[in-house]
Amino acid sequence: MMRLPFNAAQMKRFLSAIPTAILLAASNQVFAAESYGKAPESTAFVFGGALTADDMQRSASPLAVDYDGNGIIGAGLQSFYFDLDWVRVGGEVGLAFRFGQSSTSEVWAGPVARLDPLKLGNDLRITPSITVGLSMVSDAQVGREADQEREYEGNASLLFYLGPEISVSFREDAPSIFWRLHHRSGAGKTLGNMKGATNANVIGVRYIF
Prior knowledge:
209 residues; alpha+beta; Porin; 8-stranded antiparallel barrel; 3 helices; 20% helix; globular; Lipid A 3-O-deacylase (PagL)
């Protein structure tokens, strides 16, 4: 049975923080609109993919890496508040479900930076971005993540999140298709006494609203 990555006490604290988060988001939108003369851009995305059986470097080659028999589906939201010439900066929050050898869930959040698109021809746009933050899971996924947890006698519940991404679209306001390396780790035992944890190659669709 799939477990959510919150117990009752954690959920209470999370819910109590929502009003503050809403106020901060509203103030950021006002600041951004006043500073840059335009409303912040928001996007929603969905994705699906597979967890790899190797480290981040090897996992960045989707066709060459081995996979560990686990899949992942997820969705998220982004809001870009600051337009800094050639890069837009904002925040991202997401939820994913991992399945296969076991069933677990994940939530993550953090800042996201998106470079201006590389334009090829009249319509094709290739856009790199990266999300950096924290990721919490309901349990270690059976496979590489659980193996890493045992090897380092660590705790994979709360780790760093990294999501380098490349998206492709054919108009500025059109839906885009993206590839992302969905990565969790302890960054050299900084969190959870963990080094690596999970890497997933995912393909998704993003909508601007």
